[in-house]
Amino acid sequence: MGRLLVHFHVYYEDQIPWFLEKMENICGCEWDLAVSYSHMEEASRERILSFRPDAMMFQLGNMGYDLWPFIHILKSLDISRYDYVMKLHTKAPFKKRMKWRSVPIKGNVWRDRLVDALLESPETFRRLIMRFEQDPSAGLFCQRIFLITAESPFPEDNEALSEEMSRIGLSVEDRHFCAGTMFLARMAPFGFIVKAPIGAEMFSCASVSHGNGSLAHVYERILSFVVSACGLSLIPVDTAEPHRRERFLLWYHYNVSPFFEGIFSLTRDPVTRVKYLTLFRIRIPLDKGKKL
């Protein structure tokens, strides 16, 4: 079945028990646990080591959120020992109700859906590992709702992404990525990350928003891109729990909304910043785009 490396980045310590309970569903393969954190109470540390006495503990700054810790661990370990890698991290709950692809996201919904797509049950995890064994083209599994295209409504994010991909020599046609960066993937593609000139100093500036071209959000995308660059597929997966209302809303988002948007909508291109009026599927530019 191969060997798995699980990276678990801890920022919100109160979520540790929930994640350890989910990790109990890992089965059918040998696996190692690498835990990164900026600060941790002794009780939390003991709880992790009680769950997994051989867990590798890395005390790192919270630079780049969970992104730099993941890259650091990949560069610190001999990843040739592993066939697969699972990336997990604590995530702040949403206090205000928002919609993501028409699906209401509040509280821990984003975290729960990402994790449950991988670890909802032993059968869930085993099914994904078996898919790797049976399908050589399978490269990364991510919850369906959060597997999205990389075009950002913030032009500085698009520019920063292009610049960094050029700097490290990464080129890819499929620009889908796992929003929230919790996934199960083959390890081999991440050899690119290990060899790339990426250091902690690059993530030293604190991010103040999701739309400032921060390197953390750039690498949120690049971690999926390196899998696509190897010719492997990013595969959307659902949780076993039906969540029927969510699936209906997703169906509506993908099948009904585009129909009405084609009749009438006002949109702005995320790259050129040109504003368009769409009438009966005819796109009419309303300006020449906004300059940065």
Helices and strands in order:
Blueprint: E1 3-10, H1 16-23, E2 30-37, H2 42-51, E3 56-59, H3 67-76, E4 84-89, E5 94-100, E6 103-107, H4 109-119, H5 122-134, E7 138-143, E8 147-149, H6 155-168, E9 176-178, E10 183-186, H7 191-195, H8 215-229, E11 233-237, H9 244-263, E12 264-268, E13 275-279, E14 282-285
Parallel strand pairs: 1-2, 1-4, 2-3, 7-11
Antiparallel strand pairs: 4-10, 5-6, 7-10, 8-9, 12-13, 13-14
Folded structure, characterized:
The chain has 292 residues and is α/β, with parallel strands linked by helices. It folds into 2 domains: 3-241, Spore Coat Polysaccharide Biosynthesis Protein SpsA, Chain A, CATH 3.90.550; 247-285, no CATH class. Helix content is 36%, strand content 25%. It has helices at 16-23, 42-51, 67-76, 109-119, 122-134, 155-168, 191-195, 215-229, 244-263; strands at 3-10, 30-37, 56-59, 84-89, 94-100, 103-107, 138-143, 147-149, 176-178, 183-186, 233-237, 264-268, 275-279, 282-285. It has a 7-stranded mixed beta sheet with strand order 3-2-1-4-10-7-11, with helices on both faces. β5 and β6 (103-107) form a beta hairpin. The longest helix is centred in the last third of the chain and has 20 residues, at 244-263.
Q: What is shown here, in short?
A:
The chain has 292 residues and is α/β, with parallel strands linked by helices.
Could you tell me the mean pLDDT?
85
| CATH-defined architecture of the largest domain | Alpha-Beta Complex
Class based on secondary structure composition and strand pairing: alpha/beta
Kindly state the percentage of residues in helix: 25-40%
- Strand content of the residues, in percent? 25-35%
What's the β-strand tally? 14
What's the CATH class of the largest domain, please? Alpha Beta
What spatial form do the alpha-carbon principal axes imply?
globular
> First CA to last CA: what distance?
50 Å
Q: What is the spatial order of strands in the main beta sheet?
A: 3-2-1-4-10-7-11
Q: Specify the biggest β-sheet.
A: 7 strands, mixed
Q: Remind me, CATH topology of the largest domain?
A: Spore Coat Polysaccharide Biosynthesis Protein SpsA, Chain A
The structural domain count equals 2
Structural Rg:
20 Å
Summed up, the helix count is: 9
Which residues form runs of ≥5 with pLDDT under 50?
206-213
Return the string of H and E elements: EHEHEHEEEHHEEHEEHHEHEEE
